[in-house]
Fold this protein.
Amino acid sequence: MHNFYFDESIHAGLGCIVGCVVFSQLDLTPIVGEALSEFGLDPERDEFKSRFRFQGDEKARQLRLSLYSIIRNSCRIGVVVLSLNEREQLGSYAVKLVKQILRQSRSREAEFALYVDEGIKLDTETFTEDSRSVAAFSDCNSKVIRGIQLADLCAHTCAMILKERHTGQKKIVRVPGYTDDPEFEMNLGFELWARLRYNFFGKERQFDENASQSENAVIDVSGYGLLVSPNLDLKLREVVSRTFGEMYVGCIH
């Protein structure tokens, strides 16, 4: 059985909720547990939370990079953005996003599971889409279903990317190991986008011999790995579409 894991990041300043579903063909619970143990944490008692502050804590920063690596190597992601007053509908939006992904998927897998974080309620215990069955689990403990910790990281990351695009305020951070220069710096939103851009559910465009190399290196995410609430503020909806509707997957170096 292949699994979807869902969590959210609430941002009153942006006026929206960003939810992310992380999909993997692997059981992420032991994989995330190994990453936590590697950095001296007890997976039964401790967990990663993106709201934790990492400044000055090198071990926590390395753990976050390790979790990004799991996402990069083993996961696909989808994102949903909804208005603050739709918080009670978060579970239904999670189901809508999974259905949208399955509708566009070529996977032959017949059975899936959806796990959502504590506090998120689903109004169904099972649903189907395109002859695929999905067992749905509400109110899951992310210390037990640890793939939710990756969904938490993705939701927070996508919210930070969206915040930078929406406000235009860029935070410059040092990114050691990105180049040969240990003092290399870039804006935070770009650095976060670069970590996730390959993993969004999307549709590759048909190669166009008349288009440039960079134009051919764009995938469509809208309608695949992106779901936007029609109740979201129009201006913010446009920013969401510009930010996540298409994804450039070509070379950026």
Summary: The radius of gyration is 18 Å. Residues 24 and 74 are 6 Å apart (CA to CA).
